[in-house]
Structures are given as C-alpha cells and as structure tokens.
Amino acid sequence: MTAIIVISLRVTAPGPADARVSVGRRQFSIGRPVEFDDASPHVAALEYALGAVGGEVVNGLREFARRRRLPIEAVEALVTGELQDGLAYLEVIGETGRPRIRRIAIKVFVASVDDRTTRVLFDEMIERLPLVSTLREALDLDIELVLTS
Q1: What angle do CA 27, 31, 37 make, to 5 degrees?
Q2: InterPro entries from the xrefs (predicted)?
Q3: Residues 42-55 as b or e (16 or more Cβ within 10 Å = b)
Q4: Rounded CA gap, 108 and 58, in Å?
Q5: Under 8 Å between Cβ of 43 and 49
Q6: Chain-centroid distance, C-alpha 58
Q7: Helix/strand/coil percent split, the chain, to 5
Q8: Are 147 and 116 in contact (CB under 8 A)?
Q9: Which ranges of 25-114 would DSSP assign to H, the alpha helix?
Q10: d(C-alpha 82, C-alpha 4), whole Å
Q11: Which of 141, 36, 7, 12 is nearest to 99 (CA)?
Q12: For the whole model, what pTM was predicted?
C-alpha cells in the first residue's frame, strides 16, 4: 500500500509584487516568478524553488546522518539553475518557447569524520528525497558530492 501525505499551504497577494505563503504558524514572502534585478527586495519564486531543492539536500544529509549517528562537521551546497527560454517570460518580441528550468546542478561540500560512510549515506539519501526524486523525472538534475577536510 502506498502512503500519501498531503501538504497544504495558503498563498495570498498582500502587495503588488509579492505573495505571502502561510504554512502552519510560519510565513514567508515570494516575489515575481523570475527576477532579473539583483536589487529587488523580494526573493523570486524560481529562486525559492532552487533554494528548496538545495535545502532539501543539505538538511536531508544532516537528518540521515543524525539517524545513523554519523557526525557531519559541515555541509554546504552551491545550486545553479538554467532557465530555458527566459526571454519568453519577459514577452520579448520575437522570443518563442515556454520558460522552464532546463537543468539544476547541485555541488554539495561535506566535512565528515568518515568519507566512505558519508558517500554511501549520501547516495542512499538522494534516492529518498521527494523534491530530488520529482525533479529527476522532469529535468536534468546533477548532484555532486565533494568531501572536504
């Protein structure tokens, strides 16, 4: 039997350029779908999506290591996303296509006491993360583990 877990969020539009997400007693704001201005005060929806998958990998590794009593001294991820047909989102004249994430690359830097066990744990964890599993079916997802001293 397959267990289905339902997660519900409430999204409202309190201002002209942001949305407010409420989940439980927590809230956060999301800006435009895609943001090309580094000075924007809002985090774009696309940036949140990339941050969410990076956060899932970082916190997933820490959680799986905790369950197995494997000390992880430090973990950090560098996430890069490639947007295909991004100018079509801006409605640039002559641009065609549908904007979509073409590729996500995640480089995970980990300092641990046992490199071999960490590598095995990392491979097992990647198979159990919901965002990673979903995105692997939808786009080119490259996740690299870099063990540091």
Answers
A1: 140
A2: KH_dom-like_a/b, OsmC/Ohrsf
A3: bbbebbbbbeebbe
A4: 8
A5: no
A6: 10
A7: 30, 30, 35
A8: no
A9: 45-67, 86-89
A10: 31
A11: 36
A12: 0.91
Q: Would you give per-residue pLDDT tens digits along the chain (149 residues)?
A: 788 999 999 999 998 889 999 999 999 999 999 988 888 888 999 999 999 999 999 999 999 999 999 999 999 999 999 999 988 888 889 888 899 999 999 999 999 989 999 999 999 999 999 999 999 999 999 999 999 97
What are 96's two structure tokens?
Answer: 């065609």
Closest CA to 104 of 41, 37, 54, 30: 54
Query: Angle formed by the axes of helices 45-67 and 115-126, to 10°?
Result: 130
Structural domains in the chain, sorted by start: 37-148 (3.30.300.20)
